[in-house]
Amino acid sequence: MDTEWIGAVKLDFDKVKTLTAQQYSMALREWSTTVKIHKAAQGKVVHELRWQCDIGQYCLKLRQLTLRSASTKAIRVVLKQCKELKSLEIMECHNIAIPRMHESLALEHLQMHSATQLTMVSLSCFLKLCPNLKSLTITMAKDVTSLIHTTIASHCPLIEKIILSQCGVVSGPYLSTLLYAACETIQWLDLSHCDSGAITGFEVAVSLPKLEGLIFDNLRIDGKTLNYINCPNLRVISLQNCRSLTDEAIQEFILSSPRHCLRVLDVKNTNVSQVTVEAIELQCVQLTHLGVESCRNLPLALRQKYALQAHLHPSAYERVTLATNTRINIEASTSLCTSRNLLSEDVEEEDGDYEDSSRHIDDDIPIAYSFKRQRK
To answer: Most buried of 128, 132, 175, 279, CB within 10 angstroms?
Structure first.
């Protein structure tokens, strides 16, 4: 086939059956001008390292790369050779150590899922070479603590989106440093399910006018600290399992601004009361999803009412990080994944908010580690 006249923009290897390493390399050589390469589907490739290194050899104009898995060596070759690379996403990073680079990178988006081998020092050194970084997603990196917040604050002035989910300890002083530094740019902040002591240390209120998403699930944050964060334009708020928050603190935070933009509020398994829920409903006129499952201070009928409301008003903004009372080992997930890969079969909803037989799940919501659950 004569390929000289075809100006390939994207090579999506998920559209074809699994090839050999030699065939992948041939495709890279034939369409060397491609700017996007996507291979997220599972499938064993013998000598996979060989063809992944060939990405750096042939595709010098590459701008976006998505791989299910890779090696440290292959990533180093790609980063070194592909000077225009803007986006790098690796879905399974169990055996990857982030490479040590020696010159600035053009990266704007970095995603490393299941990054169990990622260390604090290596990530910090890497981010210092990414002055144009706008989006950072790291999951399951227990060695990555709030110390990384200071690195982001100092070396990533354009940062807009931060997802550090299931990572190391979150510390109030380091978090406040990040928010003060990124107050004019940050649009999305997800620290869900990180290890944390009591998050304190905010001394001055910080205004985040562009923040649209705040995901603090399962963090030990109190009302005083939460109310230091002024974010009037939030569309999504998730405070699942934040048991240290009192009902008064939740009410004060939610009602501290008009909340004209708020679409999704998730306070599953918290101390929220019926009075607060009704006040929120009156003030947040755009609200379509209110998650109150497992809130023991609320009557069952009220919990079921809001579950039904969410079912009848599907929204692209519905983002629920992890189901309440569900123990999950997130395994090699991707930013484009379905709830079937995340929701355990043995969800325990003892309060009767759901019946297993009524669950229906929509596919492919493009949100990092999120899923949409149709409710009864």
So the answer is: 175
Which residues touch 345 (CB under 8 Å, ≥6 apart)? none
Match 């510390």 to its residue by tokens: 171
Residue 96, class by beta-carbon neighbours within 10 Å (0-12 exposed, 13-18 middle, 19+ buried)?
A: buried
Do the domain assignments include residue 40? yes
Residue for token digits 């996007």? Answer: 36
pLDDT value of residue 199? 86
Report if residue 322 sits inside a domain.
no
Q: How many domains does the chain have?
A: 1
Number of H helices, E strands in the chain: 10, 16
User: Kind of pairing, strands 360-361 and 373-374?
Assistant: antiparallel
Token digits of residue 26: 């041939």
- 139, 131, 179: which is closest to 156 by C-alpha? 131
**pTM, whole model, 2 decimals?**
0.81
User: Partners of 10 in the beta sheet?
Assistant: 36
In whole numbers, what is the pLDDT of the chain averaged over residues? 82
Any domain includes 18 = yes
Query: For the chain, how far is it from start to end, CA to CA, in angstroms?
Result: 53
- In this predicted structure, what is the pLDDT of residue 203? 78
Instruction: Give the domain extent around 41.
Output: 1-85
Mean pLDDT, range 115-134, rounded to an integer: 97
